[in-house]
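Hi R.,

As promised on Friday, here is the backbone we talked about, encoded as C-alpha cells. Could you run it through your design pipeline when you get a chance and send me back a sequence?
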C-alpha cells in the first residue's frame, strides 16, 4: 500500500518527506533508518548528513522530537504515540 504524503507549505520538500515518513511509521527512527526510508519512498540518493540536517530543522520548528537512548538518537513526530526501539 502506498503512503499518502502531506506537504506543509512552510517546510522545504526534504523536511516534508522526513515528516511524512515519521508520521507513517509512527515510531522513533534513527538517522540511517530515516535516510533509507526517504530514499526508497521518494526515489532519492541522499546521505545521512542531509537527512540529519533537515530532521534537526524539524526539531527546531517543533514538528519532531529528538530523543537519546544511550548512544543512539531517535527522531519521532510530535503527537505520535510511539516509543524508540
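Update: got your reply. Pasting your designed sequence below so it's all in one thread:
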Amino acid at each position: 500500500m502506498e503512503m499518502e504524503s502531506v506537504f506543509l507549505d512552510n517546510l522545504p520538500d526534504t523536511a516534508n518527506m522526513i515528516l511524512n515518513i515519521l508520521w507513517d511509521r509512527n515510531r522513533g527512527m534513527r538517522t540511517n533508518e530515516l535516510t533509507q526510508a526517504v530514499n526508497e519512498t521518494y526515489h532519492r540518493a541522499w546521505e545521512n548528513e542531509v537527512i540529519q540536517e533537515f530532521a534537526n530543522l524539524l526539531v527546531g520548528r517543533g514538528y519532531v522530537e529528538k530523543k537519546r537512548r544511550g548512544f543512539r538518537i531517535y527522531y519521532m513526530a510530535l503527537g505520535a504515540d510511539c516509543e524508540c526501539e
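One thing I noticed while checking it: The chain has one domain: 13-77.

Thanks again,
M.
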